[in-house]
Structures are given as structure tokens and as C-alpha cells.
Specification:
The complex is a heterodimer of chains A (203) and B (547).
Chain A lengths: L1 H31 L8 H10 L14 E10 L2 H6 L18 E10 L29 H6 L20 H4 L5 E10 L11 E7 L1
Chain B lengths: L1 H10 L2 H46 L8 H12 L11 E10 L3 E13 L10 E13 L1 E8 L14 H14 L7 E7 L3 E5 L29 H6 L9 H22 L7 E8 L5 E5 L25 E6 L12 E5 L10 H6 L2 H6 L62 E2 L5 E2 L14 H20 L17 E7 L5 E2 H8 L15 E5 L2 H18 L2
Parallel strand pairs in B: 4-5, 4-7, 7-13, 13-15
Antiparallel strand pairs in B: 1-2, 2-3, 5-6, 8-9, 9-10, 11-12, 11-14
The chains are: A alpha+beta (203), B alpha/beta (547).
Chain lengths: 203, 547
């Protein structure tokens, strides 16, 4: 009982830390703009220090936690037009991802094997892979025409989806910033095997 | 002793019994309290995070036609999914959203929820109410787009179109991302000289008082034939690259709107100020004030009577036919031309469709000679292509200039060694360093010295803008407008100077990054697709910062 109590307590604390990591990282990611480029080692070190108690490492594949930062964009007519994928009347033409939410940036910090994103990931393999630049950025061309860049972003987790008709009525280029944090919890086999702490936050 | 021993022996184990029976009575409630408290704390943290996310997410839309209250509620619901695992059976989830409009718009969220308790029910406490609050503000934006329309912009983009056509499309898309009626936008284009394209007020007013005309406004996307979208569409490319003047004219435009809005707002102007610079090349023009008495650049032996007469200013611009700026002699330097912004006869739409070079190749004079009444004695200073006051630099050794000016036509320094930070990248990623040697101001017919001065001019102009150096001259104003500069460099036309564009933006990776100034961003674009991405990235960054 004592061991169970300790284990449960540790996992509850880790869950709390995971929530705070997702919130703090996401807040900075959404708000900082050019003042903070989280693809740069210095900023990743800052994030790793926030998540150090969870085992978040700046080295890819290392540690016991992962932080996934995503920026997703709603592809509307204006976005199609930005890539020249409209007809003479301004209606989408060849704009494959029109009406979808697509990734414009994906940054993964820490051990990506801990958990993959609940929102999917840009498909970087196959005949038409999405190219993710060193800063996590994805080209407008991929955003507009590459189906491998479409995010899994349905009802319930999409803050725009349930608002009646607003997406098409909003200014062009609606963006959502997402932070997901996950960490391996304290295992107590055979009672609790491979516990996973996970939290997300959308800004 | 034996009796005492027996008495002690009969009490042995009583502590163990006491501990055994008291464990459930003491330890379980204590452990339960700890677990319940932690669960409440977790729910509280998730609630706070949900409120934070909703405030920032919906806050970006403040000032638009969207229902931010509705979207904030949706953000909260998406971030805090009651009924799902991990949310501990929270009930009575009640978000309250309050929106306050104005130049600085605020969205405030208060959320309350009830968290069920598991162990504390034993003590009669079955639930606890938690709450979270978050606030976000969005300041309306004031932005001037500065677009390079030099001759190289007519080049092909490798995808069946021209670079200028691409930029027109992307710049229009950029403008449309902002909110008509709330954000203020303006347009400046430059070849050898800069001119304001939107608003279309002519003649252009270079003063920066509360009664100055022009400056970015909120009608940029009104649908009228002279709105900013139409003015962008009219841009034609030709000529040199007067990057510094483009930036400085944009700065003047920002100041005019700031002063106007501050007067209208009772001394308060909360807007963010940004300049978005696009270029496909290196600076190849400088603005000059040749008879500036602080920096007189005309030989005393010149027959020009204006050589030290600052009351009739010899203000114009000089073009350098380069890069690579290595040819000695005057054949690669154009003469002194009038500034496009000084013209009083043509409309803004005319200037979008006609560059200075277009005009000089024709017979129509836009009305900006240097100075207003040229006289024969100054012929060895002025120059142009088609029969205006005759050429000087084009014939080496025939100039009446004694030096490459130390100060440009707007008062910004052209001296120093900032150009040593030059790093020119082309679309293949190769680097060239075209600027070599020291800047020798006496070499007035040497293109490379003018090019070095042009580099310095652009660098110091940007630095002065970021410092809001003209604040001291704005009567009744003590507010530093702290402009943020974003730069986009198209590398496909032979390369751009990444070293310079990083410094102009005060990018974090700039060789001169200054933490006390606004941090901007430089985005290189090696092809048209990357160029489109660059414009959307800058728009996104400004919308983020405006919170």
C-alpha cells in the first residue's frame, strides 16, 4: 500500500508537471514571435530546463519525455491565392488542401518515441514527402497542395469546428498553436505498466 | 523484578495493535487528502491552461468580425474536455468571456468548475469548486510595406511568371490578412528613389506632425479603386535599389499616423509599428543632400552657385550600376536625380506604374529636378539619361563633387565600416563578399566607394528607425514608437545581402543584435514558393506580436 501510494503520488506530480510544461511551452511558442525561435538550441535548452524533472532532453531520441510544438493553418481561398492556386475568379483551383487544417511548422524536442502527436504529423516519406526545414517550417506549396501535410484536427479538438460557419468568415490565415507534452511515468508492474503522462494545450 | 517483568511482558504488542487499528483511521484519510488535493491541483492547472490558451487563441481575433466570445468558449472546450479521461470528472464547467474593444482590445476569461473528491467524502466533503482566469490583449497594428521594384524584379521566377508578379500577389495576400477598419496599413515602393503608394495623398507630406497628411490608414482594403490592394497591383519594375530611402519614407509614414492617432486618442497611441521590407538585391542608390552645410560635398571651384547654399537644397539620389561595383571610373555611376517623393505633379497611381527610369527615358518630366531650378553651373553634378542637365559621373574626372557625402539626404550617416558585415547569398547558398577595402570618400567616381556608402546608409537608416531617432523632433510627443522591421530577401535574382538584411531587422542572429530595440526577423527565400511562405510567416509574426 505504501509503495502504491508513493507510486501514485509520483505519477500525479508528473502529470502536473506535464500540464505545466505544455502550457508554458505553448504560451511562449504562441506569443513570442521572432523574439524566440524554438528551433534554435538556446531556446530548446530553455524548454528542456522547464521539463528537466520529466526527463526532457535537447538531444533527439534521448530522455523520457517529449515536447511537440505544432503550428496549424486553415487553408482558405486567400491561402490558395497566395500560392497561385485559384482561377480567374479567385476560386480554388488545384488547391488540394482547401478547407483543411495543415501544418506550417512542427518542432519535436526530446525523445519522439515517448509519444507521437494526437494531431498527426507531416508525412515525410513516400513519393511526395513533406519537407520540414531545419527551423521546423513547411513551405506554402506543401501546405496548399501536399495531402501529407494535413493535420488530424476534427470535431472536439478543433476550436473553430464547432462554431457555426466561422472558419470561412474569419480573416484569411487562421492559425492555431499547439503544444503537446508527454513523459513516461513511474511504473509499478504488474499493477501499472508503462504509464504515460500527456497534456496538450491549444493557443 | 519478576513481577515487573511479567507486567511489561503483558503490555508487549500493544503499540503494534494500536498502530494496526489506527492506520486506517489516520493514514487513509491523510493519504486520501493528499490524493484528492493533488487531483484538485491537476484540474486547477488544466483549467488555468485552458483559460490561457483560449485567451491567446481568441485574442488574436479581437477587432475582426469574428465572434471572439464564441471562439474563446470553443477554445476552452477544446482545451478542457469535460467527460474525457484525464479531466477527473469535472462538472459545472462555466466559462465567462468578457471582451473590451478599443485600440487596445482585451479579452478576459473566468472559468469555474466543480471537481469531485474521492476520499474526502468520508469527512463529508464530496466536491470542491475551482476557478481560473486569464486575460489577453491585442493592439491594433500599424504596418508599412516597403517593396523593391528595381529592374531585376522583372526577371523570371523559374515557375512561369515574374518575380514582381509574384510579389504583387503575395503582398496583396499579406495585406488581406489584416483587419480593415482596425489595423492601419501603408505602402512604399522604391527603385532608385522611394515613393508612397498608399495612402494616395499627393503631393507627399514629409512632415511628422499631428496635422501631416497621409500615413497608414484603416481603409487599405476598402475595395475602392485606389485602395492599397489596387495600388499594389499597379506596381511596375525598373531602375536602381534605393533601399535606405524606402525604409526612411516608411518611417515618416509611421510617424505621421502615430501623431494623428495620438491627437485623436487624447495623447494615447497603442498601436504596434512595423515595417516589412522586401528586396531582391543589394542597395544601389543613395540619397544625397550635396550642399548640406554640415557636409558640403561640392568643390569650392565649382561653377555651381548652390555649392554652399543650403537654403535651396540640392537633394536627390545617385545610382550605382552594380553589383559587383568593381569597375573603376565613373561609367558605373549615374548622376544626381530628383527624389520621386518631391514630385508634385503625378498621382500615386502614376508612380506605381512608372519608375524614375521609365520617366527619364521619356520626355515627360515628373517635376523633381535638382534643385528646383537647375542652372548651368551645376551641370558637372547632375546627370541623367536623356538630355536633362548634362552628365557628370558618366565622364570620369568631370565631376564637381569633392567627396562621397558622409550624411545622406535624410540626415543618416553613410560613414563607417558597417559594410564589413556584408554576406551576399544567392539561391544556391553560395556566399560572395563584394565589398572590399576601406571606404574612401574622396573617390567620387569610384562605384565601390558609393556602394560602401550605400551599405552604410541603409544600415544606419534602419538603426535610426529602430531607435525612433526622430522622436526629439516630434513636438508634443515623448513616446518611442519602437518600429519592428521584418525583412524578406529573394535570392533568385543573383543574391541578397543576408548580413545587411539581418542587421536591418535586428534579427536575433544579426551581427549587431540590440536587445533594447524591437526584435525583427529576416526570412530568405530561394524560390517563389519560399517567397510566398515568407510573406505569410511575417504576417503571422506581426499578428502574434500585436497581442
Amino acid at each position: 500500500m505504501l509503495l502504491g501510494t508513493i507510486g501514485t503520488g509520483l505519477n500525479l506530480v508528473m502529470e502536473l508537471q506535464t500540464i505545466e510544461l505544455a502550457r508554458d511551452a505553448g504560451h511562449m511558442y504562441a506569443r513570442a514571435g521572432p523574439a524566440a525561435d524554438f528551433s534554435q538550441p538556446g531556446y530548446q535548452t530553455l524548454l528542456a530546463s522547464i521539463g528537466s524533472t520529466l526527463g526532457l532532453s535537447t538531444t533527439a531520441g534521448k530522455g523520457s519525455a517529449v515536447l511537440i510544438l505544432s503550428q496549424v493553418l486553415y487553408v482558405d481561398k486567400g491561402i490558395c491565392a497566395s500560392d497561385g492556386k485559384v482561377d480567374g475568379s479567385g476560386n480554388p483551383l488545384g488547391c488540394t488542401n482547401y478547407g483543411d487544417w495543415v501544418f506550417t511548422q512542427r518542432l519535436t524536442i526530446g525523445n519522439s518515441s515517448v509519444k507521437t502527436s494526437n494531431y498527426g504529423s507531416p508525412v515525410v516519406t513516400g513519393k511526395t514527402p513533406v519537407t520540414i526545414a531545419s527551423n521546423g517550417g513547411i513551405s506554402l506549396s506543401d501546405q496548399v497542395t501536399n495531402v501529407g501535410d494535413v493535420a488530424t484536427f476534427g470535431v472536439g479538438i478543433n476550436p473553430y469546428k464547432d462554431v457555426s460557419g466561422v472558419v470561412s468568415g474569419l480573416p484569411s490565415g487562421q492559425t492555431i498553436f499547439i503544444a503537446e507534452a508527454a513523459a513516461n511515468g513511474y511504473a509499478m508492474p504488474p499493477i501499472v505498466n508503462n504509464p504515460l503522462m500527456y497534456s496538450y494545450n491549444m493557443f | 523484578m519478576p513481577r515487573n517483568f511479567r507486567r511489561g511482558s503483558s503490555q508487549r504488542g500493544s503499540i503494534l495493535l494500536l498502530a494496526t487499528f489506527s492506520l486506517p483511521l489516520l493514514m487513509v484519510p491523510l493519504v486520501g487528502l493528499a490524493i484528492d488535493a493533488t487531483i484538485v491541483r491537476i484540474a486547477q492547472a488544466k483549467l488555468s491552461a485552458a483559460a490561457d490558451g483560449a485567451a491567446l487563441g481568441a485574442g488574436r481575433l479581437l477587432g475582426t468580425t469574428a465572434s471572439t466570445q464564441e471562439i474563446a468558449t470553443e477554445f476552452v472546450n477544446a482545451n478542457f474536455q469535460t467527460g474525457s479521461s484525464g479531466f477527473w470528472g469535472v462538472t459545472n464547467f462555466t466559462p465567462t468571456v468578457t471582451v473590451t474593444l478599443g485600440t487596445t482590445k482585451t479579452i478576459a476569461l473566468n472559468i469555474t468548475a466543480t471537481v469531485p473528491l474521492f476520499f474526502m467524502r468520508i469527512l463529508g466533503k464530496s466536491s470542491v469548486v475551482i476557478s481560473a482566469a486569464s486575460t489577453a490583449t491585442r493592439r491594433d497594428s500599424r504596418i508599412v510595406m516597403v517593396i523593391d521594384r528595381s529592374g531585376s524584379m522583372s526577371g523570371l521566377d523559374g515557375a512561369g511568371s515574374t518575380v514582381i508578379a509574384d510579389v504583387i500577389s503575395y503582398a496583396q495576400g499579406f495585406a488581406e490578412k489584416f483587419t480593415e477598419g482596425a489595423d492601419e496599413l501603408g505602402l512604399v515602393v522604391y527603385d532608385g528613389s522611394a515613393v508612397v503608394g498608399y495612402p494616395t495623398v499627393r503631393p507627399w507630406d514629409s512632415t511628422t506632425t499631428k496635422t501631416s497628411t497621409g500615413g497608414p490608414d484603416t481603409s487599405f482594403y476598402s475595395g475602392a479603386g485606389a485602395d492599397m490592394i489596387h495600388q499594389i497591383a499597379a506596381i511596375k519594375a525598373a531602375g536602381f535599389t534605393g533601399m535606405a530611402e524606402g525604409l526612411w519614407v516608411a518611417y515618416i509614414e509611421l510617424q505621421k499616423a502615430h501623431m494623428r492617432d495620438m491627437a485623436a486618442g487624447g495623447g494615447v497611441d497603442d498601436r504596434t509599428n512595423s515595417i516589412v521590407l522586401f528586396t531582391d538585391g543589394l542597395p544601389t542608390a543613395v540619397t544625397v543632400h550635396l550642399n548640406n552645410t554640415l557636409d558640403n560635398s561640392i568643390l569650392s571651384t565649382s561653377a555651381c552657385t548652390y555649392k554652399a547654399n543650403d537654403t535651396q537644397k540640392m537633394i536627390g539620389w545617385v545610382g550605382i550600376l552594380g553589383p559587383p561595383f568593381t569597375t573603376a571610373g565613373g561609367s558605373n555611376i549615374s548622376g544626381v536625380y530628383g527624389r520621386a517623393s518631391s514630385d508634385t505633379t503625378q498621382t500615386a497611381a502614376w508612380w506605381m506604374a512608372n519608375s524614375w527610369i521609365n520617366n527619364t527615358q521619356g520626355d515627360s518630366e515628373p517635376g523633381a529636378p535638382v534643385p528646383n531650378t537647375p542652372e548651368g553651373g551645376c551641370n558637372n553634378i547632375y546627370s541623367d539619361y536623356s538630355g536633362k542637365p548634362s552628365s557628370n559621373f558618366q565622364t570620369s574626372g568631370k565631376t564637381d563633387l569633392k567627396q562621397v557625402p558622409n550624411i545622406d539626404g535624410w540626415g543618416n550617416s553613410m560613414d563607417g565600416t558597417a559594410y564589413t558585415n556584408s554576406a551576399v547569398y544567392d539561391s544556391s547558398g553560395s556566399v560572395a563578399t563584394p565589398y572590399t577595402g576601406a571606404l574612401d570618400h574622396t573617390q567620387v567616381t569610384n562605384p565601390s566607394d558609393w556602394a560602401l556608402a550605400s551599405w552604410n546608409e541603409t544600415d544606419t537608416t534602419a538603426n535610426n528607425i529602430r531607435n525612433d531617432s526622430n522622436l526629439v523632433n516630434r513636438a508634443g510627443d515623448t513616446e518611442n514608437i519602437m518600429p519592428t522591421i521584418y525583412t524578406i530577401g529573394y535570392e533568385g535574382d543573383g543574391g541578397v545581402d543576408q548580413g545587411l538584411l539581418l542587421r536591418i531587422a535586428n534579427d536575433k542572429s544579426s551581427s549587431s543584435y540590440n536587445g533594447s530595440q524591437a526584435t525583427g526577423m529576416y526570412i530568405p527565400a530561394s524560390n517563389t514558393s519560399a517567397l510566398a511562405t515568407a510573406f505569410t510567416t511575417v504576417a503571422s509574426a506581426i499578428l502574434r506580436l500585436s497581442k
